[in-house]
Design goal:
Elements: E1 10-12, E2 17-19, H1 27-35, E3 46-47, H2 52-55, H3 73-78, H4 83-91, H5 94-104
Length: 117
């Protein structure tokens, strides 16, 4: 979800509210959140999705985060999660793929190198 400094975090729906400080050492936070799942956010523990950290993000790689079951590859395939990979390995050269990634401006943690050939 990001904002690791405030973690661990959870997000509740349908309010789309993030909560911080959830841990076994803070049972009152979890109790307050559970008691208000169908109501308004609990302001003393909630992080608004409108704060700059969340509001200014445009998720690309994780655009379906929270929407699909990460343990079911069928969910990812249904959301188009592997279409680009299939196009890369079946229709494009390694150099084309590398240049596309560079042009995309994607940022994030360093990932392992994947050899396509």
């Amino acid at each position: 979800m990001g904002l690791c400094a405030a973690g661990p975090l959870i997000r509740t729906e349908p309010q789309h509210t993030y909560y911080r400080g959830l841990s076994p050492g803070n049972p009152e936070v979890l109790s307050a959140v559970i008691d208000n799942l169908d109501g308004k956010p609990v302001p003393e523990f909630a992080l608004s999705p409108d704060i700059p950290f969340f509001a200014e993000q445009k998720r690309i790689v994780l655009e379906n985060f929270g929407e699909i079951d990460p343990e079911r590859i069928e969910d990812s395939i249904a959301a188009g999660g592997y279409e680009s990979l299939l196009a890369c390995i079946s229709n494009r050269s390694r150099d084309d793929v590398v240049q596309e990634i560079i042009r995309s401006g994607l940022r994030g943690v360093e990932a392992p190198v994947i050899r396509l050939a």
